[in-house]
Design goal:
With 123 residues, the protein is mainly α. It contains four helices and no strands.
């Protein structure tokens, strides 16, 4: 006796998945174009923090387009985009922000938050 199989949704059958894949491809393309352009321009012309600002804007822009189109945003890329943008702005303004130390603190606080506020699961 056989049972009817439930079709598994694929990227081709879900328009939002297709759109999300396209948005991610556009973000990668913009990232590669930005890197190529920055490598072509002499370092003396490019302000400090330009790369970080570009990465932050690309990641945050990707999530903005996801949100506009009803696609769930990625908290991880929002976090990375915000961190990159703040780092770039800090570099541009001549501030020496200890980004790695800030990242470690935020990761530790995130772990504590999950431990304290995550509902206890019954076993």
């Amino acid at each position: 006796m056989t049972t009817p199989e439930t079709p598994i949704p694929t990227a081709q059958s879900d328009p939002k998945a297709v759109l999300n894949t396209r948005l991610e491809s556009v973000a990668w393309a913009l990232f590669l174009i930005m890197i190529g352009c920055l490598w072509l321009i002499p370092d003396e012309i490019i302000p400090q923090g330009t790369w970080s600002i570009g990465v932050g804007l690309i990641l945050l822009g990707l999530n903005a387009f996801r949100s506009i189109n009803g696609i769930p945003m990625s908290r991880f890329t929002i976090f990375l985009g915000t961190l990159a943008l703040l780092s770039g702005i800090g570099d541009y303004l001549g501030l020496n922000l200890p980004i790695f130390a800030i990242l470690l603190i935020l990761l530790g606080l995130n772990i504590l938050y999950k431990i304290i506020y995550r509902p206890k699961q019954s076993t």
